[in-house]
Records
---
Amino acid sequence: MSKKTNFGKINGREAMVVGIIIVMVALFSILSPTFRTYSTFVSVLDMSYYIALMAIGVTFTLITGGVDLSIGTGLICYSLFGGYLIVHKDVPVVVALIACLVLSILIGALNGLLVAIMDLPPFLATLCTCMITRGLGSLLSGGFGVSWPSSLEPEGWFRKIFRFTVNGKVIPIGIVVVVVLVLLMNFILKHTKIGRYTIAIGSNKEATKLAGVNVKFYHVFAYVISGFFAGLAAIAYSATYVTIYPGSGAGFELDAIGGAIVGGVSASGGVGTITGAFLGVLVITLMKVGLPFIGLQANWQQIFTGLVLIGAVLIDVVKKKK
Amino acid sequence: ETKEETPATTPDTKAPAASTEEAAAPAETAGGDYHFEVIVKSFQSTYWQAAVKGIETACGELGVTANANGPANESDIADQVQMLNDAIQKAPDGIGLAACDTNSVLDSLTAALNAGIPVVCFDTGVSDAPEGSVVATVATDNKAAGACAATNMYPVIKDVVAAATADKPVRIGEVNQDATALNIQERGLGFIDEMIKLCTADGKKVAVVGNEFYVNNCSDKGDEKTAEVIIEVGVPAQTTVDLAATEANKIMSKADTIAIFGSNQTTAEGVITANETLNKLATDPAEGIIGAGFDAGTPQKAAINNGKLIGSVTQSPLMMGYKTIYTLVDVCNGKTVEDIPMDGYWYNADNMEDEDIAPNLYD
Amino acid sequence: MEKIKQNAFVKKVGFNRIILVLVMLVMYLSFGLLTGGKFFGMSRIMDTMNYVYFLGFLSLGVTFVIATGGIDFSIGPVMFCCALVSGYSFLTHGIPMAAALILSVVIGLLFGIFNGYLVAYWKIPPFIVSMASMNIAKGIAAVFTKTQSVSWPQSSDANGWYRNFVKAGNVPTGLIIFLTAAIICGVVLNKTKAGRYILCLGSNKEAVRLSGVDVKKWEMLAYVICGILVGIAAIFYVGAYTTVQPGYGDQYNNEAIAGCVMGGTSMAGGLASIGGTVIGVLIISLLQQGILALGFSKDYQFIITGIIVIAAVYADVSARRRKN
Amino acid sequence: MGDIILTMKGIDKSFPGVHALDHVDLEVRKGEVLALMGENGAGKSTLMKVLTGIYKKDSGTITYEGKEVEFKNTREAQDAGIVIVHQELNMLGHLTVAQNLFIGREFKKGITIDDKKMNEEAKKLFDRLNVDIDPKEKMSNLTVGKQQMCEIAKAVSFDAKVIIFDEPSAALTEAEIEEMFKIIRDLKKKDIAMVYISHRMDEIKVITDRVTVMRDGTYVGTLITNECTKEDIINMMVGRVIYEDPKTESAVPEDAPVVLKVEHLNAGKMVQDVSFELHKGEILGFSGLMGAGRTETARALFGADPKESGDIYVNGEKVTINCPQDAVKCGIGYLSEDRKRYGVAVQKTVAENTTMATVHQFMRGIFINRKKEAAVAQEYVDALATKTPSVDQLVVNLSGGNQQKVVIAKWLTRDSDILIFDEPTRGIDVGAKNEIYKLMNKLAAEGKSIIMISSEMTEILRMSDRIVVMCEGKKTGEIGIAEATQEKIMNLATREID
Ligand SMILES: Nc1ncnc2c1ncn2[C@@H]1O[C@H](COP(=O)(O)OP(=O)(O)OP(=O)(O)O)[C@@H](O)[C@H]1O
Ligand SMILES: Nc1ncnc2c1ncn2[C@@H]1O[C@H](COP(=O)(O)OP(=O)(O)OP(=O)(O)O)[C@@H](O)[C@H]1O
Ligand SMILES: [Mg+2]
Ligand SMILES: [Mg+2]
């Protein structure tokens, strides 16, 4: 009843997810000696970057009571576009990065327009932009897969945002970048107007409108944030992996949304934290990376992911019943 | 290595049906304003872009036209079948086909046969094709190409393998994109079987572990407990680069791993990606893991130049496309044609610039 | 314009649906003309129909789920799971073809029960349930088949008789079966108790529950019907395209859902039109086929489908808003 | 009395199917409290929503501080100094009290929101208003009354010149109402004009200066509070409409059998040890303030919400009711207080809604016999005089009263012997209201038994044979209609339970 339990609830969920992470790490480490190496730790992080960045963005839309299904194909679309500019148009990497982000913001704004202004159901609207970005990505890149400059080339400097090597030791600096962004966005969600109104829209859109808030603007903005972070995720993806193939990317969004939900973000709006979403993403990535290590064929990871998702939501359902 | 520009005109042993079909078709002049439809597996990777380039070159040389098309994804079987059907509808003088799936195109091949359109398969053969529909296949012998990687890798790791004991076995990894596509299967098994052969020849006991398909279909899966050399096969849940990298990472993280082979562009890049974190790849087995790849592409070429991979096997997509058109024109001109086996070429930092290698190393 | 809209016939069929039919005809004609008439050919039509069948069954299935206000985007992977597991059982474990076909439907049914139970009885949001079952379907299929693709027998094969469901000689049996199924679905949705409750609970679940109706049962039934239809879709998929690979199938979710909502089924639930779904599926298939036939890449199809769906749904949403 | 600050003239507003405001006039003066009265559905809320820019008027003029104005949204109205406390709560359950209080006008520190300052300011405001609420509490954890006080505090916290209270007292306890009156008197001293909408006659006499009365969307007239009697106001409100004669004594014979007996029903905090009996042919009124737990009692009884304990007997037989199906099988029907949310499926037709509980009666084999269904639905449309062009009309296009009749028809087709009417006339216009009263009396006369939950005292006194009063989840008393008075009921409804 008191504010303590309020706080307790949110932190409780996060604490629980941290607990799950610890248990998973312990389990994998016991079952597989190769798992408990520095490099595995780094590769878990490597995979978590782009999913976590998408999760940060999509959490904003989830909190408004919507969803953004276009981030996965969007990510590939932006990444293809940027890569195409570098490889085929010889633009400097900085320009490509900016182009990536600009395109992502535009697609985010398009989602916002469809959902907040044209009042289309978020699921459907973003499903359509998912299809559109999937096609657009191939068209913008001329239908070809592209490879961004490698870390050995001077133009590959952007890869050092996420990972660089000192004396043969890989420093996963990306985790710092992502954590800073997580904390920043968590702060924005909790302590700025943008965040406040995002929660308010998810809580009761009509009442928020009656309070004189420019609901449309903030609603659109949530989708722009989602798009923008898909753009950042595109950069992380391009920086971590070698070649970007058109036609891929569908399904990435589900890892991000799944992570957010495991981390306690409610699919019906109003509830959730960015830190929670980030921790949830770590669970998903750990599963992807860890399960092959303990000798389970890669396909088991999909079954486990499905079960973990249901389990996570079931906790909420059972809690609510009590 | 078969490097003839024109196929051998050996006595007519194959595809008699096709030649009679052709004879029945309205006679065209040899210079040929022929039009062909070419269907590739997809345009996703640069591999196929190279193939299309070869097709265009051949068309330019012969003065024929060809229209290349392909689904968005190598797994879009349904789309490719439709494309093939559409191509047949257009009644071209011939069809070049790289089938995503060899079984799903059979009905369409029958339709092509009935319509009197000769089909040349390239990259991937269709073994069960109805008699006479496929007049020739221009494809890499994937088994040989996979074995080629093993043959070239083995000398480098020979000493380490020799030193291996049942108590302290060594591990050779292989990452395959999937266990479904015929060419990947053959390639993967080709590498495994050759490696087993080479190791057993040196008196080593070999075991194959990992993905069930490869374990069950290799020449001898052995026993992991007594083996001195363990070949571990990883297959990602889906063919995305991140999951391919995870599989590579899993294998490369193991302390006893001495070598790893990525059996196509995606998985070879997976190995390279995993190495970004692990930093274990080296050209000397004493210093780290020996890596080998398959196909080309900028990242692989760079990795070879930088001493991350000792080399890679390239097919010649360019030549395959090129020869497909030549074969089709021959068919149209009533010549008898034969299957053209294409070789896999081992390339490394030394021979990358060679005249007969460089054109096949697409970006 | 207003006059047309007020016309009794137009009102009954629905203005937007008539527009859709027109869109479809225009598309068909223009594809026909652009391909020099080849698109009109009988065998071409049969090809198009191959795509209509399996997508149509998926779309019919998901229509029931969307009618309850839910969503299921595990249908594509579940369809592949059905085809893979039953096909693998046939090829490797030697079960008879008839049993394999039944198995396919049963697997679809089991997924329907699983999804429906979690949604209706455990109150887990449909979105999350389908996200989970999509992963589970892919995983099970891959584990069961040892990540092998499965090629069903050809029509020339002794066991290839199942292909007669798709096409028997030159008789488009698939069309007959699909239309019959659509009519049955239409009857179930509009004329039976099950359909009535599914639609009503989609419109206002709480009101139906407070009327003393076992809403959980009916809500679950929608998912079960969907599951069965997905199992049937699997048969039509392999009947036309022979081979299925593990790990895929998601690409058909979007198209099936798009076909359904394009036809006027509301994502908010309560409003569903089987006729609309059939038209929607035809449009999607035409688009898919036409774009391929014109030699354009599939990318255009994605973009155009996305735009058409947005337009169709926006038309519905704004019409409803004007009414209120 | 102060100068005129606000004039509304000839305001007209129609909703599809409802002419909600028909050339209404209104005049508000500085430093006065103007009561705006009228039956449910008279158009009071609509008029205020037009004033504050929530609805766009069809015609008419609004003059504020001498200038003609037209606010496009609440924000503009707020900025001009007109704020409104809405009838329905507009809370954001996921945010704290302070965050709710300052939503849309947060204090800022740089680009961030200064939650600390907001909490402090909220504390100051609550201290000044003498309300005991923790600003850091999550809004959804407050009682309805406290939430309402937050809304009032929020209105006060604006530097407003005109404050509109739309039925603020409905959810408040006596003590809270006293607090609110203090606040209002305070505001009056500051020359702030207020519009006070309430159905409670006593409050009107205590706190307001003038009374403007509306009826059926029209302006009837304005009285000076001190110079008129309750009866004057009621006459103006009710006008030509003749209500069913109020009951003065129970119409139920002494020996009428007990059809429903509830013993020691417990369901959460809102239903604690509730027991009562319902006789055949009886209308049993349930009275109490909002939040008294009557709805919860009804829902628990009906099986709509889980219950912890308690026995239910129907016609003397003990029954188990765990879900609405069980209740329906026992012959119980429930008309929810929130029609739109729990009563009708608005996107479905009248016929479909009518047969919602009884589809199985219209089956021919596995098919629904639509003809028979339509015929039966039409029968009830005629019997209840539901205004609808046809039974194929979508319910969303019907007015509230007619929607209510569709819900009643639903239970009548089911032949339910026990009917629970939860706020049967909420949001229903005067004419329809009377028809529903007639209908209820008719049903009771036919031997059906009715539980009627109502927050309107007049309705309770007019319709009930017996009255159960609840307060904070407990039954606090039971009075026969012959002895019942408003005061007695109010006493029981606000009784502090030891
Ligand atoms: N948004 C709306 N759409 C359609 N009809 C409406 C709408 N809002 C109000 N009405 C109708 O307008 C009429 C006046 O409603 P209003 O809420 O103004 O009454 P009121 O006097 O405030 O009643 P109460 O005392 O119950 O609050 C009613 O018949 C109501 O059903
Ligand atoms: N467990 C609870 N905790 C907090 N608030 C609750 C709880 N249960 C109910 N409430 C609130 O109290 C109100 C209960 O009112 P309820 O409808 O039961 O009372 P009522 O006597 O029927 O009054 P009315 O019908 O006039 O609203 C609900 O609107 C709800 O917001
Ligand atoms: Mg009102
Ligand atoms: Mg109530």
---
Amino acid sequence: MQTHDKAYLSVRDLIVDYTSDGAVIHAVNNVSFDLYRGKTLGLVGETGAGKTTIAKALMRILPDISAKIISGKVMLEGTNLFELDEEEMRQIRGERISMVFQDPMTALNPVMKVGDQIAEVVSLHSKVSYEEALQVAIKMLETVGIPAERHIEYPHQFSGGMKQRVVIAMALACNPDVLLADEPTTALDVTIQAQVLRMINKLKNEKETSMILITHDLGVVAQVCDYVAVIYAGEIIEYGSKEEIFRKPSHPYTLGLFGAIPKLNEDVSRLANIKGLPPDPSNLPYGCKFHPRCSYATPECSEQSISLLPIQGNHLCRCINIGKMSKKEHTNGTSC
Amino acid sequence: MSRNSNSKAIIKRLMKNKAAMFGLALFVILIFLSLVSPFIMKYSYFEMNPSAMLEGPSWEHPFGTDDLGRDVLSRILYGGRYSLSIGISSVVVALSISMVVGSIAGYFGGKIDNIIMRLLDIIQSVPGILLTIAISSAFGSGFDKTVLAIGLAQIPSFARILRAAIMNIRKMEYLEAAEAIGAKRYRIIFVHVLPNAMAPLIVSATMWIANTMLIAASLSFVGLGVQPPTPEWGAMLSAGRAYIRDYPHLVIFPGLFIAITVLGLNMFGDGLRDACDPKLKN
Amino acid sequence: MAPVVEVKNLCKYFNSRRGLLHAVDGVTFSIDAGKTTGVVGESGCGKSTLGRTIIHLLDSTSGDVFYKGRNITNVRGNELRQLRHQMQIIFQDPYSSLNPRMTVEATIMEPLKLYERMTKAEMQKETDRIMELVGIENRLRMAYPHELDGGRRQRVGIGRALSLKPDFIVCDEPVSSLDVSIQAQILNLLQDLQDEFDLTYMFVTHNMSVVRHVSDNICVMYLGQMVETSPVNELFDTPLHPYTKALLSAIPSTDIDNQKELEIIEGELTSPINPKPGCRFAKRCKFAVDACHQPQKLEELLPKHFCACCRARELNGL
Amino acid sequence: GGNAEAPSTAQDAGPKEIVLRVGIDADPGTLAPFVKSGSGFATISYTLYEYLGELSEVGGVLEGYIMKEYKEVAPLVYEVTIYDYVHDTAGNHINADDVIFSIAKMKEMGGSGNMRYIDSFEKVSDYTIRLKLNSNFVGGLNKVIASCRIVSKKAFEASKDGMATTPIGTTGYELEKYVPGSVVRFRKTNNHWQKDASKLATLQAANPDVIEYKIIKESAQMAIALETKTIDLAVNMSNIDAQRFMDNKAYTVFQNASNITNQMYLNLDTDSVFYNNLPLRMAVLRSIDKQGLVKGAVSGYGAPLKDFGSNQFPDFNPKWENEDYNDYDPVKAKALLAEAGYKPNELTLRIMTDNTPIRNKVAQMIQGYLMATGIKATILQYDQALFNNYKIDTKDKYEWDIMLDNTGASDYLVSMYRAKFDSRQYSNGTTNGVKDETLQKYVDRANALDGHSTTDVDNLHYYMKEQAYAMGLFSHITFMVGRDGIETLTYDAKCYPAPANTEFNAKY
Amino acid sequence: MIRYIIKRILWMIPVILGVAIFIFSLMYFVPGDPAAIILGSDATELELNLLREKLGFNEPFLTRLVEYLANVFLRFDFGESYITHNSITTELVRRMPYTFTLAVLCMLISVAGGVPLGVNAAVHQNKWGDRISMLIALAGVSIPAFWLGLMLVLLFSLKLGWLPAYGIGGIQYFILPAIANSLGQLAMLARQSRSSMLEVIRSDYIVTAHAKGQTKNKVIYKHALPNALIPIVTVAGSNFGRSLGGTVIIENVFSMPGIGSYMVTAINQRDYLVVQGSVILLAVSFCFIILLVDILYAFIDPRIKAQYEGVARRKKHV
Ligand SMILES: Nc1ncnc2c1ncn2[C@@H]1O[C@H](COP(=O)(O)OP(=O)(O)OP(=O)(O)O)[C@@H](O)[C@H]1O
Ligand SMILES: Nc1ncnc2c1ncn2[C@@H]1O[C@H](COP(=O)(O)OP(=O)(O)OP(=O)(O)O)[C@@H](O)[C@H]1O
Ligand SMILES: [Mg+2]
Ligand SMILES: [Mg+2]
């Protein structure tokens, strides 16, 4: 991946393992990417691909019992986050990088008033009195469209969409430079999702926040992201700008993914599907991790480790058979 | 039941848990020893020797002798039969009744549930040991009566555990599926509900076996429970307290065996719980 | 084509702590034989309740359900058990819909045991057939659900529903908890099965693109009521009800060339407890007028296209 | 006795107050005079109340307390006269009305079983009452006299709770503090009604200035209390705990032979194995090593019995001491068993006992002895309440074959025979179902006022021995441990210590 | 909230009545005749019968039950002891303070010791801190209170002379019995705290708190502990019941004139009325503690408070 000197956050060679019941799970394998100021990177992939793990690794909030960052570095404006001590890292969390979690229903502390939960992060990172912090919190609530007087309420008094907004308000309260949004809308109804997506976009534009948006909804990606990284079995298998990925998906997996979603504005009698199942993360196949499911697989695919190579400019792909794939199928995949 | 389970998976996980296996091993060894003790011990548990009373531990009597010159080790090993079977049988008593009560309350819900729960409320508002003592004083002392008293007093809490588990399962779609394919109610309860709701009950029953020994000791203390000469550990412990200063081996050894049992069963129970709920592990 | 299932004015109310919860409130529609009728709507609008009430997993509060012309609203006991042969359900959650203590074989065989006077060998054979049909490898015969992935579990659920050879299946969000690649496999499977056995589906979901893909007809529900129903393409091309419109335009499109701003419906789903009469969407509807607070009637505004909105004609220029 | 002078250290500045803190092992429950008292109250009782009179010691002579004298006016009719200057600690004068009141109350409230021997009672004059007894047996009057606590009617009626917590007695002590279940403290009044020391009975002494009873139920705690010096005298210590103090200069261990002895009864109901099978009864009796029981059950602190009761009583014939009393003879026992028609290990007997520590051991040892003879035995052990129930309940057949129990008396050996073998008291013969006219005759003779001769008692003794219906096992010793400085302890006729009588030396 | 509390208090009436009936019936069938105890072993049958008659034992069950309930609940009179003839009510009132002081102290000790121990173990899950804490906890649950009590006395009273060994007086008299009686509960509380903390620590909002940059300790005590508190408080509440029950033993060991030792004496004497009275009183106080715990829930968890106030909880959708 070529370095971009304006990269605000860059991740290099991130490897994360979990141990569970004695088995080692290779959740993230050699992931590198850059994030630019004011841009949004979408991480797309199926369940268990390692998306959340990547995000948590950046903030160093993986469960310390089971997870281990094997290697890698995360450079935030020249500082390697992995080299900071716990106290310095604490300063960065919430203030410079913050995160919106997958499930708004569970991401809020049920026994704390929402106002206090937002104020907490404010008072942790600025030297203001608690009163002032609470004022900031209330303002944040209003920004996300929740009436100020509801700051004394508890999470259970909010609907799912409002909770998600509170979570976002909390993440944005200290004007972070980087926002990690882990499936911020998956748990929500479409109408509410639309509200949240619009709000995220608005805040991002106003504050120039860099964002990593994790999702498996390609519609959301199309709506919000600038760059897209497709994750499969803990690896980035394709990377590029939104346009590159949507117009010219190159990796067979990405192709399959596009073929598998029913489209609103088009009729196909049968969905294209990817055969088989995602690999067992504790026992990943050698070579291309996708080759057992890939219809273009050749013997070489399982014999060598495949690297992520540019196809065109910044559009990267981890496949040795791109050239050999028939043109027709290629275009078929992009017909969206 | 042959289709019994995902228990296979639980057992597999359990087997991997060293602490749990250690605990189980302790328990099994105790049971084994209590069964074979008459054949391997030099002294029988009732053999008195007036010339060797209240002797401390020695090669001849590793755990010493008691006030009638009986070999404490033999008594303890043999007494395991009583102690362990008090635990196991009172759990069986409690389990069988609370299963009926709990599943009726949990599955049918509504009014029946309400009535049962209110009755359990009443019984549970008498603190446990008091209840056991009260029941025990109604039945009198003796092995079978102690088993009954301890078992009956435990019914409310077991029934509640089961009911809670059933309430959880009631939300499961596989019950609806069973109904959708036209399964009858008793089949749904016995095939689909109970086997899946038993795990937490079994876990707490396991741990509770150990607790009965302490209850038995308490009952002996207040003059109920299994009476000496039965070499039940709790009764031995309680009876030995008169000698606690001069001949501490009379209380230390039964106490130690109770502690080992409690330790073993709790380790096993903890492991079992972890195995039933893999989430809890990490 | 005769409808397989007809629902007339079906209501299902639940008693809740705060009052009567109108989960399904006066729903009328019919499902054509061999076709798929999609039911969409936001979470909690009563889709699942509707499906379960139709197949008698829940007792209806009022209204009638007809199966192949026969009123089955009040069937009980053996009659109901016979009816189970013909109406089945596939569940959303592949984790909670399988008994964790039953093997794949036992799960699929259970309905056979309950009904058919089959010998053990016949049941085995029938199980083989169903497993092949839904695409479960024979080696997984003795596997327990927890050893299976979500897709395979869902296949087992489908197999269980199919083993009684039903005509009508309620699919309650069968793919919404599955990953896209698996989702496509299951949708294709359902489609193949329908073609092969001429099944009638009621397909409940909140995913508009899925519903578009699978359905022939579509019903849009809002807070327990049916607000619009029509053939699928018609609905997507010319939605009539303001809610349907809003719903459609809130879906982010994967078409990056024609990105449109998502339309926002302000506010959230209100509570279905003791609702006021009138259009339940009125509170969030930008076109709401006083007349909306009167009970709305489902009217056939276009051929086969029904809508329950007093302003629909006017707003759509009909 | 009765010397109230406490030898306090003369060198001290002022007269040092003598405080005696006594640990007792049972909760009196109440201080009321007419309530049937358990062992907890028995010790306290003498500090608080006085009886009409009491025996001077086990098997001793009747001493008047409040009673000045009595005379027999007709067979079984007695006139009892009390001192005319008795008053209680509140100053209420006591006269015949109070005595009548006290007896009536005692009877009504069931305070003493001995009240049943009173046929009628009435006032004769201001200080004299007439008692008519209903049974003709030796010591009957003693029992009645020694069971009547006397309090002032006025004081009793003034008390809200029947003197349960606000007792007023006639002794030299007054209640100072009472925490039910924990502490009872008395202070000497120096105003006892009996100023004439020569007329004081043994147990009427009032030596310590303060007596404080502390209830300590846990036996290990009793020893600890002595060692931590929170009590000065421990009542009823187990021999195990007492041994700890025996070689310790700082403590004195008082040993006293208990008047309560341990017995074994065989079931002689008509369906019992023992019925009509004298060899079997003998086999059982001969199996038991009484000396061994003493050693095992009470660590040697006791003596095997040579009769149903112990040798403390005046009517115990010393010649029995050297005779065989169905003593231990394992060889003979086996032979007797065979003679009785049983093969070894063919017979299983049920031994019933209560759950006191001593009899718990006795039962286990007897089980062992019987096994050695070839008789299997199971032990049925019940708590006191159930034990009494099963013992008395004769509606159905007995639940036991061998019963272990204890019996005590304060006056005569024959009282114990009367208590257990008088068929008039039991619907099923004797306490163990014996239906034997000869035995009844002997019991009656030995107890009769005009009987009770050496011959009568001998007849009873030998008949019982020959018939082997029951057997006395052993007597044991009770232990009181005091701290150094306690010179003597006095016991009443029921072997309870009377702390007010304690004598101290200079070291106290 | 107030209404909820009142409702709960009212509900206690039938519960306590139920307890009384239950205990009365239990004691009714107790073998062992108080008359035999009162009159001693040399009583004649005639005397026994007379006494039984006098004590009302020959009345039918229902008559006695109704009379007893009327006395207890209308006249607040538990009757008088068969043995001592003392008023049981007076006796209970006199003894109550000791028992409650002891039980409350036990609860305090077990909470003060058990919760930190359990939290510590959870935070250091599977490390030495955890293992040691849990070993202490296991030791705690396996030691009988009377044994521990005597050991404590030997050490602290006899050897060190720091604390009184028995009896009553200032608070120092309660320390050893309270420790002996509470160790088992402390251990249970530690185990409960550990497992509920472990559960909570895995929650998303704990990760959220870390992600805010909150310090480890604050996360534990500010975010995790309050959420883990409900089961902990529940166990603490039922521990109060255990403490009350434990007094039956510990009061005897330490010669404390509380309800427990009163009851043990009474059991051995078949003094039913005393046993009944003691059990009812202890049950009533236990009920109050449970009520307190229920009210405490509302302060710990706003969701429960909302429930009490009749505002239904957030709906949970599948
Ligand atoms: N605490 C953990 N212990 C062990 N394994 C874990 C843990 N958390 C995640 N994993 C495993 O790591 C892999 C990556 O998980 P991760 O949560 O990062 O995936 P994801 O892409 O976020 O999936 P989803 O879309 O379901 O959120 C999965 O195989 C998962 O099972
Ligand atoms: N058994 C029940 N008891 C009480 N209320 C119920 C019950 N089942 C459903 N409800 C309520 O009825 C309403 C409709 O529920 P239903 O499950 O049918 O909605 P849904 O459209 O299927 O939602 P989702 O998309 O979340 O599955 C909801 O408000 C729900 O809370
Ligand atoms: Mg994730
Ligand atoms: Mg649903």
